[in-house]
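Dear H.,

Thanks for agreeing to be a second pair of eyes. The structure we're designing against is below in token form, covering all 325 positions.
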């Protein structure tokens, strides 16, 4: 297994280099850059002063270099474990990611727990009661989760439960001066309730459909019919024999869970004013903050590679027939 892991990690380095080159090229090929954005905000000054300021900004940021030279400098700094400094606030990229990652992680972690606790049992019960009322109700949830735009559903929750009813705060993470303790935790959970509900409702659809489809395939297998023919109880057949093999395809979803825990939900965080990494990344993209965009996306690419590797390793846990070579 060690040889397999080392081989995959070596391949991951090549993948990350390719991803970094593509992302850097795409950002540099955008129709505008950070300097042009900054100059548009300043405006109204003498053209000579504006031109001098623009030249200084290009020199300081390194955006006056061509793509190849600029990428080479970024890669050289990365080899020295330096992701650079953000253009907008002169804060270290690593420090900025670390500062805002906690809120996104807490939000996503709680949401994923509820998503799996709700989606997997509903998917199983829909499969075991195919074409029943229960199955149709689950299908409705699937359609809702897959069809509703995140910005629309988040605004809907915000309008009803925050603005109209006043049960939850409209935006933000804290409204009082609590910094630690139980009261602080309660207030954080109070502010996070609507964002979590939004993420869970929009996320359970795909997981439920995936679980239902896999469960139906397993229930039609020969060994399930044999187990029933031997007189095993339906509960034992479903949850001991069928459900274990249903989990094998579900393990592939692990690859997306790890980056999802840290990437943040850009639209949801933006609407509810959660200062998470997703919200910060959205602002950085709007400002064309190249160092942060590169650092953030490479961070997610690294997590994705690790997630895929963990997914492959987990196959051995749920299916002993799988051997890694």
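And this is the sequence the design step returned. I haven't edited it by hand at all.
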């Amino acid at each position: 297994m060690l040889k397999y892991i080392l081989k995959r990690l070596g391949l991951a380095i090549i993948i990350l280099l390719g991803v970094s080159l593509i992302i850097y090229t795409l950002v540099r090929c955008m129709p505008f850059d950070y300097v042009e954005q900054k100059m548009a905000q300043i405006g109204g000054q003498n053209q000579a002063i504006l031109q001098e300021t623009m030249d200084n900004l290009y020199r300081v940021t390194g955006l006056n270099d061509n793509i190849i030279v600029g990428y080479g400098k970024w890669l050289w700094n990365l080899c020295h474990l330096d992701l650079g400094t953000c253009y907008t606030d002169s804060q270290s990229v690593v420090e900025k990611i670390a500062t805002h990652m906690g809120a996104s992680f807490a939000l996503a972690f709680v949401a994923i727990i509820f998503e799996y606790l709700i989606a997997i049992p509903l998917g199983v019960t829909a499969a075991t009661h195919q074409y029943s009322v229960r199955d149709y109700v689950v299908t409705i949830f699937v359609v809702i989760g897959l069809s509703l735009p995140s910005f629309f559903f988040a605004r809907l929750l915000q309008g009803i439960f925050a603005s109209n009813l006043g049960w939850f705060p409209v935006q933000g993470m804290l409204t009082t001066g609590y910094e630690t303790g139980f009261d602080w935790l309660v207030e954080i959970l109070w502010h996070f309730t609507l964002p979590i509900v939004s993420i869970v409702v929009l996320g359970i659809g795909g997981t439920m459909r995936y679980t239902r489809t896999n469960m139906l395939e397993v229930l039609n297998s020969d060994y399930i019919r044999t187990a029933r023919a031997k007189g095993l109880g339906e509960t034992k057949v479903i949850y001991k024999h069928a459900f274990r093999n249903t989990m094998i395809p579900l393990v592939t979803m692990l690859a997306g869970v790890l980056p999802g825990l840290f990437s943040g939900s850009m639209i949801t965080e933006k609407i509810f004013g959660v200062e998470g990494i997703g919200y910060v990344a959205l602002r950085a993209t709007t400002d064309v903050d190249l160092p942060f965009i590169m650092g953030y996306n490479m961070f997610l690419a690294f997590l994705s590679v690790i997630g895929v590797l963990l997914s492959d390793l987990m196959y051995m846990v749920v299916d002993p027939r799988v051997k890694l070579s």
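Two observations from my side: The chain has a mean pLDDT of 82. The chain has 14 helices and no strands.

Warmly,
E.
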